């Protein structure tokens, strides 16, 4: 017990010493410079997020044959990676129902195809299996098939909180992207505000 206690004391002393040593060497100007750089970086990454959602090369703006959706994705997907985009419930379920009687040789359609010819072929040794054996549920298919680009949700198409894969007319996903952008920026603004406040407090202590 005594040993534990002295460890704690030792530990907090080191932390406090390191802390004051770190800040005594920093001039306020430099702190503000770092702050500005951080702020522009976070704004930049927000803008990128929106672009990725809206202007992906393989993003479908109109209904079309499935083949075009995954053709050549293999070679370019790294540049256009999206992650955990909330997909509308109906879109995932419909997609699953339309495919569930098919067969497929692959669980992850992003990678591993044989592209030696113009179209994608199953890699040597990959056996075709029943769709439902590869993807037992709609959720497993929607999330795994494009390596977690999409996230299964309970949001319906009219919720404004999820992306629609198939739609007619104006792109409804624009509003959804804007919602998540604003939502995200509000969180980041809050974080930035508290960051600024702690900096002000710190600077006043120097
Ligand atoms: C890719 O497909 C071609 C035929 O189109 C075949 O000759 C080759 O062995 C395949 N390669 C792999 C790695 O599956």
What can you tell me about this protein's structure?
With 206 residues, the chain is mainly alpha-helical. It has helices at 2-24, 28-55, 66-70, 73-76, 89-99, 131-134, 138-144, 173-205; strands at 85-87, 103-104, 129-130, 150-152. The strands form two sheets. A two-stranded parallel sheet has the order 1-4. A two-stranded antiparallel sheet has the order 2-3. α2 (28-55) runs antiparallel to α8 (173-205) and α5 (89-99) crosses α7 (138-144). The protein is elongated. 10% of the residues are buried. The chain binds 2-acetamido-2-deoxy-beta-D-glucopyranose (NAG). 2-acetamido-2-deoxy-beta-D-glucopyranose binds next to loops. Residues 114, 116-117, 121, 123-124 line the site of 2-acetamido-2-deoxy-beta-D-glucopyranose (NAG).
Task: Summarize the helices and strands and which ones pair or pack.
Elements (H helix, E strand, L loop, with lengths): L1 H23 L3 H28 L10 H5 L2 H4 L8 E3 L1 H11 L3 E2 L24 E2 H4 L3 H7 L5 E3 L20 H33 L1
Parallel strand pairs: 1-4
Antiparallel strand pairs: 2-3
Helix pairs in contact: 2-8, 5-7
The protein binds 2-acetamido-2-deoxy-beta-D-glucopyranose.
2-acetamido-2-deoxy-beta-D-glucopyranose (NAG) binds next to loops.
Largest sheet: 2 strands, parallel
Secondary structure: number of strands: 4
Low-confidence stretches: 1-26, 36-74
How would you classify the helix and strand content by structural class? mainly alpha
Mean pLDDT across residues: 71
Task: Give the ordered list of helices and strands.
Answer: HHHHEHEEHHEH
Q: How many angstroms does the end-to-end distance come to?
A: 37 Å
Question: Oligomeric status of the shown chains?
Answer: single chain
Bound molecules: 2-acetamido-2-deoxy-beta-D-glucopyranose
- The best one-word shape is elongated
Q: Give the fraction of residues assigned to helices.
A: 55-70%
As a percent range, the share of strand residues is under 5%
InterPro entries: Folate_rcpt (IPR004269), Folate_rcpt-like (IPR018143)
Protein name: Folate receptor-like domain-containing protein
Family: Belongs to the folate receptor family.
GO molecular function, one term: signaling receptor activity
């Amino acid at each position: 017990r005594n040993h534990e206690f002295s460890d704690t004391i030792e530990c907090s002393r080191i932390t406090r010493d390191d802390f004051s040593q770190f800040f005594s060497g920093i001039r306020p100007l430099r702190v503000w410079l770092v702050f500005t750089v951080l702020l522009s970086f976070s704004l930049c990454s927000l803008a990128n997020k929106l672009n990725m959602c809206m202007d992906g090369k393989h993003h479908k703006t109109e209904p079309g044959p499935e083949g075009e959706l995954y053709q050549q994705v293999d070679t370019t997907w790294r540049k256009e990676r999206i992650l955990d985009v909330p997909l509308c419930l109906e879109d995932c379920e419909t997609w699953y129902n339309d495919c569930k009687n098919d067969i497929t040789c692959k669980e992850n359609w992003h990678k591993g195809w044989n592209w030696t010819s113009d179209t994608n072929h199953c890699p040597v040794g990959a056996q075709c299996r029943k769709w439902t054996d590869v993807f037992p549920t709609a959720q497993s298919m929607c999330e795994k098939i494009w390596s977690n680009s999409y996230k299964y949700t309970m949001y319906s198409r009219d919720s404004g909180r999820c992306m629609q894969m198939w739609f007619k007319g104006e792109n409804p996903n624009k509003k959804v992207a804007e919602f998540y952008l604003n939502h995200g920026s509000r969180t980041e603004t809050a974080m930035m505000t508290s960051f600024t406040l702690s900096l002000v407090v710190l600077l006043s202590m120097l």
